[in-house]
Amino acid sequence: MAEQANEPLLDVRNLQKFFPVTGQLGRIGGVKGQVKAVNDVSFQLFEGETYGLVGESGCGKSTTGRTLLRLTEPTGGKTIYKNQDIFQASKKELRSLRKDLQMVFQDPYSSLNPRKRIGQTLEEPLVIHSLGSKEERRERVFDILNKVGLGVEHYYRYPHEFSGGQRQRLGLARALVMNPKVVIYDEPVSALDVSIQSQVINLLKKLQDDLKLTYLFITHDISVVRHISDRIGVMYLGKIVEEAPTDSLFASPLHPYTKALFSAVPGANREHKKERIVLKGEIPSPLNPPSGCMFHTRCPFAMDICKKEVPVKKEMESKHFVACHLY
């Protein structure tokens, strides 16, 4: 586990991303409401660590990753990187920040240009930022391909000539070619076979040690996030409901939603000697979220106060935070 520094490398404060919902005539029909995809999310990422962001599909994990890098413009909040607010950065400043902050997308094939050879795709960021000569850029790409477990021969191939696991490595190579400080992974192994998943996860950990990288790892897979993360944030309907060091969270999950997620993992029930918790109903619509605690419509322990008041995040143990009226 990475040693935690005093100052965070990336500090996300009260992040919000709302998407307007318009009428049938678009803007002419007026805005009918807002989808609150990310609503007041805060966490810190320390140098050299992996922070796992986990939750059901549709809870806002991917939107969080895209928004804090301004790939999607935020509605509110701040993201501080080395004392600079990314949301207030000019286009020129943001372009410079892109060297340090990279993202690996969920679908590697759709993020690769099918008309370009892999070598051209990987060299493109270096060309954009005017880094190195033509020969130096090529050598840099060869080196990165080698680091992610591919060979020089792959430099000349097209995306359709690679397997799913190889494409995932290519997505990783494109992020690493800029020598970043922070890499955000959006479901990097969800579409891969279990055997390939373990290869990619082990590769990510090795690269993190070798290149001194810091990761934000977004996934819905509890077993994967446990294997790679130092700390974990559990997300539900646009909010982080629990956050703790990985060992602490798995030893003693506090929020009812976290307990339900863990109980669905094969083997976790035997570990905690508990029956599986089955949540009733579907995730409420972010267009019209419940009042008070957003989880109260599915929570087996819901009280009257849960319907009226939003729970405040409290520190129950060392660095173990939970937002729940039960505590």
Automatic annotation (TrEMBL):
It comes from the Bacteria. Pfam families: ABC_tran (PF00005), oligo_HPY (PF08352). Keywords: ATP-binding, Nucleotide-binding, Transport. GO terms for molecular function: ATP binding. CDD domains: ABC_NikE_OppD_transporters. Residues 10-262 form the ABC transporter domain. Transmembrane segments: none annotated. Belongs to the ABC transporter superfamily. This is Peptide/nickel transport system ATP-binding protein/oligopeptide transport system ATP-binding protein. It comes from Anoxybacillus andreesenii.
